[in-house]
Design goal:
Helix content: under 10%
Structural class: mainly beta
Number of strands: 22
Oligomer: single chain
Strand content: 35-45%
Strand order of the largest sheet: 3-1-2-22-21
Largest sheet: 5 strands, mixed
Order of helices and strands: EEEEEEEHEEEEEEEEEEEEEEE
Distance between the termini: 28 Å
Number of helices: 1
Shape: globular
Length: 272
C-alpha cells in the first residue's frame, strides 16, 4: 500500500504517482505559518518554502531532514534573501538546482529590470550567498517567475506573466525556455514553448532531471481553480500533449508541484 503524506494545518500534501492504493499519514512541520510555494532538493533532504503569514511579509524558509524516513526539522529563515525584503517586495518560485549548489527564485528587489526578476544564490556549506540578478536576456520589464533548472544545469524553464482578462484573478504566465551558450557560458534569449503547453494560464513549472519532462499547474476556467499537469518533450522542438494528473483533481486548488525522485513522491500545495 502506498502512502499519501499530508499536512492538514498547512494544506501541504505529497502523493505517490500512479499508485492504486493509498495510506494517509500526517506530516509535521514547525516554523511555517502559511506556505504558498514549496520545492525540494534532488536528494529529498531539503525543502524550500515561501511563507506568507497573516501579518507580515513573505519570506523564504528552509527545512532539513537527516534522511528520507525522518521528520522535517524546524524551518529556518534564509537571511541572505530575507534581509532584502520590504513591505513592497514580492518573492516567489524558489527552486534548488539538482546538484544543490544554487538556489533560484523570483523577486522584485530594488534595482531590478521591472516587475519580478529571476535571481540565484550560491550555496556553500549550507550557507546562502547574496542573491545575484540574472540580468538580460532572461529578465525584462515583465514579470519573470518560477525558474527551474535542468539536471545538467544547461536549460532553464520559467514563466513570463501575461494579462488574460478571463483569468484576471490569477497570476498566470506563459512558459519560456533558455539554454546555456556553450561558448560564453551565459543564458541565451528565452524562447516561448509551443502552444501545446502555452494554451492557457500556467504557473509553477518544474523540470525533471531527465531534462525533458515538466510538471506544472494550470488554471481550469470551469473549475475556477488550479490543476496539475505534466508534459514530456519528444526532442528539442516537439512536445507530447500535456496530461492532467486526475488522481490529484479536487474542488480545491493544487499548485506548486514537485516530484522527488528519491522518495517517489509528488509534493504540492493545496488550498481552498
Amino acid at each position: 500500500m502506498k502512502k499519501i503524506l499530508f499536512l492538514s494545518l498547512l494544506t501541504f500534501f505529497s502523493i505517490f504517482l500512479f499508485a492504486e492504493k493509498y495510506e494517509f499519514e500526517k506530516v509535521e512541520l514547525t516554523g511555517v505559518e502559511n506556505p504558498v510555494y514549496t520545492a525540494l532538493s534532488a536528494d529529498g533532504l531539503r525543502m524550500i518554502i515561501v511563507d506568507q503569514p497573516k501579518k507580515g511579509f513573505r519570506t523564504l524558509k528552509q527545512c532539513n531532514r537527516p534522511y528520507l524516513e525522518s521528520r522535517w526539522g524546524a524551518a529556518t529563515n534564509i537571511e541572505a534573501v530575507n534581509k532584502l525584503i520590504t513591505k513592497d517586495t514580492r518573492i516567489d518560485g524558489p527552486a534548488y538546482t539538482f546538484d544543490n549548489k544554487y538556489l533560484f527564485f523570483a523577486a522584485n528587489f530594488e534595482g531590478g529590470f521591472g516587475g519580478l526578476d529571476i535571481y540565484s544564490c550560491e550555496i556553500l556549506d549550507d550557507e546562502f550567498a547574496n542573491p545575484v540578478n540574472l540580468g538580460t536576456p532572461i529578465n525584462s520589464p515583465n514579470d519573470e517567475n518560477f525558474p527551474s533548472i535542468s539536471g545538467n544545469r544547461r536549460i532553464m524553464f520559467f514563466t513570463r506573466e501575461i494579462e488574460m482578462k478571463k483569468l484576471g484573478d490569477y497570476q498566470t504566465g506563459e512558459l519560456f525556455r533558455s539554454t546555456i551558450n556553450p561558448k560564453t557560458e551565459t543564458w541565451t534569449e528565452a524562447q516561448k514553448v509551443n502552444t501545446q503547453i502555452n494554451n492557457g494560464g500556467i504557473a509553477y513549472p518544474k523540470i525533471y532531471d531527465d531534462n525533458k519532462t515538466i510538471i506544472y499547474s494550470k488554471v481550469n476556467e470551469s473549475k475556477d481553480g488550479w490543476e496539475i499537469f505534466w508534459a514530456k518533450q519528444l526532442n528539442n522542438i516537439h512536445w507530447y500533449l500535456p496530461v492532467r494528473i486526475d488522481t490529484l483533481v479536487s474542488m480545491e486548488n493544487e499548485i506548486s508541484p514537485f516530484y522527488c525522485k528519491q522518495d517517489a513522491c509528488l509534493y504540492f500545495v493545496k488550498y481552498d
